[in-house]
Amino acid sequence: MDSDDLEPIIKPKIIDFDTLSIEELKEYISDLEKEILKVRQYIKSKKQDRSIAENLFKKND
Description:
Elements: H1 22-57
């Protein structure tokens, strides 16, 4: 089992874009872009952790 299987899946809340102003929509986009950067960094960190673990348990040929 992968540790990713243990992490909860967060479902985004539904947003009615019709009720938001243009400025609110721009702010929403900015918040999403920040969140995307955070997730990309998290993925990079997890890949590094996986690589370290794989090298630690790698069989010496």
